[in-house]
Specification:
single chain, 327 residues, alpha/beta, Aspartate Aminotransferase, domain 1, Aspartate Aminotransferase, domain 2, 2 domains, 12 helices, 15 strands, 17% strand, globular, binds pyridoxal-5'-phosphate
C-alpha cells in the first residue's frame, strides 16, 4: 500500500486471501449493472440467485444475500428474537450485532467475553463470533450450544478457516442454527449473507427490513464474489495459516505478548501503543494502534492481520520492526 508517497507493507487489511486485487476477481466487475431497485420489487438478478446457490451448496443450507454484514446482522437480530425472548450476546461482539439487537424487542443479556457458563436458562438465542477481530480468539462453540438457538457471525473466518473455508463452526464440527458470513473480508469483495433453515430465509425475505428496504447488491459485486468463492482454495488458506504461524512465533520470540490464534494477531503494548505503531510506520509496516475505549485500559494493543499473499520476507520484516519498536 502507498501512504504519503511511501510504499508500506499492509498488516491491517481483512483481505486475508489476497483476492481483492486478484485479476480474475477484478475482471468480473466488468459485467452486469446495478440492481435498480430492492430485490422484492424488480432488483432480483440472476447473479444474486447464482451466488446464493453457490453459497448454499458450499454450506449445505439456504442462504440470503445482504448488501453488507452490517445489514445481515440488523436483519437477523432485528427480526428473529421477539418481545419476551431473552437474547445473549458476548461482550466483544461487533457493533452490527449490538445494533441488530437494539432493534429487537427481546431482553438483552451481555455476558463477559467467552463466559458461556453464564448463559441464563431461559435464553432463546445466543450470539457469538467465530473469530473475534480485536482479540483474534475463537470460542469453543460446543460450550455455547444448549436449549437455545445459536447464531455465529463468521465475518473474519469465512473463506479463511475451516473445511472449504466454511468457518470456525465447521472447523469445530458444530452446526449453529444461524450463520452470518461476509463477502468483503477473506473473499475480498463486498456484501454478506445469512445461512440457516429454509424458514429463516422466508422470514427474512418477508420481515427483514434491512433486506426488504434496500437496493439489491449490484450484479458486478455478486459476479465478483462468485469468482472469489472459487479462488478461495486450500492452497491460499494454507499460506495464510503458515504466515499466521510465522508471525505469531516470531513476535513471541522478540518478547511480544501475543493474543489469540489464527490470522488476527494483536500484541498488547499498553501505554507504548501509539509510539509502537508510529515506529512500525517508520520501518515500513502499517498496523494500527488500538486504544481505550475500543479495548479495556491496560489492554491497548497493536493489531496485525496477516494475508496469504504476504511473503515470508515481509512477515520477517514485520517481526524485526516490532523488535525495534519494543526496544
Ligand atoms: C463480526 C463482524 N460482523 C459484521 C461485520 C460487518 O461486515 P460488513 O463490513 O460487510 O458490513 C464486521 C465488520 O467488520 C464484523 O467484524
Amino acid at each position: 500500500m502507498r501512504l504519503d508517497g511511501r510504499e508500506l507493507v499492509n498488516f491491517s487489511s481483512n483481505d486475508y486471501l489476497g483476492l481483492a486485487w486478484h485479476p480474475e476477481v477484478r475482471a468480473a466487475y466488468g459485467e452486469g449493472g446495478g440492481a435498480g431497485s430492492a430485490r422484492l420489487i424488480s432488483g432480483n438478478r440472476p447473479a444474486h440467485d447464482l451466488l446464493e446457490a453457490a453459497l448454499a451448496e458450499k454450506l449445505g443450507r439456504p442462504v440470503l444475500l445482504f448488501s453488507s454484514g452490517y445489514h445481515a446482522n440488523l436483519a437477523l437480530l432485528g427480526t428473529v428474537p421477539e418481545a419476551g425472548d431473552v437474547v445473549v450476546s458476548d461482550a466483544l461482539n461487533h457493533a452490527s450485532i449490538i445494533d441488530g439487537l437494539r432493534l429487537s424487542k427481546a431482553r438483552r443479556v451481555v455476558l463477559p467475553h467467552d463466559h458461556p457458563s453464564q448463559i441464563p436458562a431461559d435464553a432463546r438465542l445466543v450470539v457469538v463470533e467465530g473469530l473475534y477481530s480485536m482479540d483474534g480468539d475463537t470460542p469453543d462453540l460446543c460450550r455455547w450450544t444448549g436449549d437455545h438457538w445459536l447464531a455465529v457471525d463468521e465475518a473474519h473466518a469465512l473463506g479463511a478457516l475451516g473445511p472449504q473455508g466454511r468457518g470456525v463452526a465447521a472447523m469445530q464440527g458444530v452446526e449453529p442454527d444461524f450463520m452470518v458470513g461476509t463477502l468483503g473480508k477473506a473473499l475480498g469483495v463486498a456484501g454478506a449473507f445469512v445461512a440457516g433453515p429454509a424458514a429463516l430465509r422466508e422470514l427474512l425475505i418477508s420481515q427483514g427490513r434491512a433486506f426488504i428496504y434496500t437496493t439489491g447488491m449490484p450484479e458486478p459485486v455478486a459476479l465478483a464474489a462468485l469468482v472469489a468463492l472459487r479462488l478461495a482454495d486450500d492452497e491460499r488458506r494454507e499460506r495464510l495459516a503458515q504466515n499466521a504461524r510465522r508471525l505469531r512465533q516470531g513476535l513471541q520470540q522478540v518478547g511480544a505478548r501475543v493474543l489469540g490464534a489464527h490470522h488476527v494477531v494483536p500484541i498488547v503494548t499498553r501505554e507504548r501503543t501509539m509510539a509502537a505503531a508510529a515506529r512500525l510506520l517508520k520501518e515500513g509496516i502499517y498496523a494500527p494502534g488500538i486504544r481505550f475505549p475500543t479495548v479495556p485500559q491496560g489492554q491497548e494493543r497493536v493489531r496485525f492481520t496477516v494475508c496469504s499473499e504476504h511473503s515470508p520476507e515481509q512477515v520477517d520484516r514485520c517481526i524485526d520492526a516490532v523488535a525495534t519498536a519494543l526496544r
